[in-house]
Design goal:
Elements lengths: L3 H6 L13 H7 L4 H7 L11 E2 L6 E10 L5 H7 L7 E6 L6 E3 L1 H9 L4 E8 L2 H7 L3 E6 L11 E2 L3 E3 L2 E3 L4 E5 L2 E5 L4 H23 L4 H4 L3 H7 L6
Parallel strand pairs: 2-3, 3-5, 4-5, 5-6
Antiparallel strand pairs: 1-6, 2-7, 2-10, 8-9, 10-11
Length: about 230
């Protein structure tokens, strides 16, 4: 994970060519929820839980185009739009904590015209009613009407740390009501396969629970609970 000094050393850079994760792997990952993928990947890759969808049905899965923003400045959002390809998810980090409204319906219109599927941003957004009506998935740190300027360089398509998660350009970003998870591009198909197996196991457990089975028995909890000192009192 890059430190603060290395982040500042990569300011003013736009990488035009990135290696996106395999499309088949992305398509397969899109079938599963964030919680399933996180568990299947070994309980890693989650962004911090303050990143929330602006509407509850928001969901997105695709390769990351990354942005490093400066506080209160959305210049690089416009720069990034040129680098977008159909199916991309924009992931925007900031050089310091900032809740300003970096993004709204006009940028969403621009991003969508370039083929972007959504945005994950460790910062603020505005025009939430319009974004919701557009059905443009946005996952943000805050909703804030405060405007931004265009004066200070950041970067596009460099490694970033977004809400505590390390994101390389081209990694797969999956976001839904449960949060945001990042799958490294090189692991995408392996994680997708593991998520598929986990989903099948959960379907079997769900059927057992629906039939009245108890987790105490399914997971063989009774003996360890007794050893831990659990007592039943009638």
């Amino acid at each position: 994970m890059p430190d603060t000094a290395s982040l500042f050393n990569q300011l003013g850079v736009v990488k035009r060519h990135i290696v996106r994760a395999d499309k088949a792997a992305i398509d397969k990952l899109s079938r599963f929820g964030v919680a399933t993928i996180h568990e299947a990947m070994g309980r890693v890759g989650l962004m911090k839980p303050y990143i929330r969808p602006i509407y509850t049905s928001a969901r997105v899965c695709g390769p990351a185009v990354t942005i490093l923003l400066q506080p209160g400045d959305n210049w690089m959002m416009h720069v990034a739009a040129e680098q977008l390809q159909p199916g991309d998810v924009v992931v925007a980090a900031c050089t310091t904590d900032n809740d300003d409204g970096f993004f709204g319906d006009l940028l969403a219109t621009s991003f969508r015209a370039r083929g972007a599927l959504g945005l994950v941003i460790d910062g603020g957004v505005r025009d939430v009613a319009d974004l919701t009506a557009m059905n443009f998935p946005v996952f943000s740190r805050a909703v804030h009407s405060k405007g931004t300027i265009k004066a200070t360089l950041g970067s596009v398509n460099v490694p970033v740390v977004c809400a505590g998660a390390f994101v390389n350009p081209g990694d797969v970003v999956i976001a839904d009501i449960d949060g945001v998870v990042v799958v490294p591009a090189a692991r995408a198909m392996d994680v997708a396969n593991a998520a598929e197996k986990r989903e099948a196991l959960e379907a079997d457990k769900r059927a057992q629970f629906a039939a009245g089975a108890l987790g105490l028995d399914m997971y063989k909890m009774r003996e360890p609970l007794e050893k831990a000192g659990l007592r039943y009192i009638d």
